[in-house]
Amino acid sequence: MILSDTRILESIEQGEIVIEPFRPDCLGTNSYDVHLGKTLAIYKDHILDARRHNRIEYLEIPETGFVLHPNTLYLGVTEEYTETHNSVPFLEGKSSVGRLGIDIHATAGKGDVGFCNTWTLEISCTHPVRVYAGMPIGQLIYFQVEGTIQNYYNKKENAKYTERTEKPVESMMWRNKF
User: Fold this and answer.
1) Is residue 59 a contact partner of residue 25, using CB atoms and an 8 Å limit?
2) Fewer CB under 10 Å: which end of the chain, C or N?
3) How distant, in Å, are the alpha carbons of 43, 47, 145 from that of 113?
4) Would the pLDDT of 71 be above 90?
5) Are 3 and 142 in contact (CB under 8 A)?
6) CA distance 119 to 84
């Protein structure tokens, strides 16, 4: 079941959902709009290796915007820090962003109960497009969890994305032993 605006507000009041900063005008009927942070990142190497730490380079989005180009993976970040303690957050792109040819995640649209951080975005585009820090980029939708939770993300020993950050975070796949 998807949480309604009323239920999202109740969950915020009870500390079950945290959104910082919270802006009431960003609350939709059953979602909350999130915004593109000021930092993007790109990988330094052309060929990425899942077994090693691939280094990234950070880019600040100037006030005049930044042009995204096709065939490049950009890592972005939401302005909003979020926590979810009893629901599953899903991050989806806004339709207006999609209509500009921008995808905000390749595969990681679902968060885990206990995720506490900003959201790293896996941004790609089909056409060159200028983006701006602070622009609406996506929306969080919360799904109710049924049953007892035993394994909160922020309490797992092997959780890879728990350090609070305002910058995009590169893949930590290399920490997996395979």
Assistant:
1) no
2) C
3) 29, 33, 9
4) yes
5) yes
6) 12
- 10 Å CB burial of residue 97 (0-12, 13-18, 19+) is buried
Instruction: For residue 163, give both structure tokens.
Output: 């350090």
What residues contact residue 121 under an 8 Å CB cut-off, 6+ apart?
36, 74, 75, 76, 77, 78, 104, 105, 137, 138, 168
* Per-residue model confidence (pLDDT) at position 104: 96
Which tokens sit at 108?
A: 């990681």
Cβ contacts of 37 within 8 Å, gap of 6 or more: 76, 77, 78, 79, 118, 133, 166, 167, 168
Quick: pLDDT tens for 122-163: 999 999 999 999 999 999 999 999 888 888 888 777 777 888
- Residue numbers annotated as active site: 122
pTM above 0.85, yes or no: yes
Least confident of 31-40, 87-96, 152-161: 152-161
SS3 153: helix
| Rounded-to-10 torsion of CA 43, 49, 55, 59 | 10
